[in-house]
Amino acid sequence: QVQLVESGGGLVQAGGSLGLSCAASGSIFSSSSVGWYRQPPGKQRELVASISRGGRTNYADSVKGRFTISRDNAKLTVYLQMNSLKPEDTAVYYCWVGLTMYPYSNYWGQGTQVTVSS
Question: Which of 39, 64, 30 is nearest to 49 (CA)?
Answer without folding.
Answer: 64
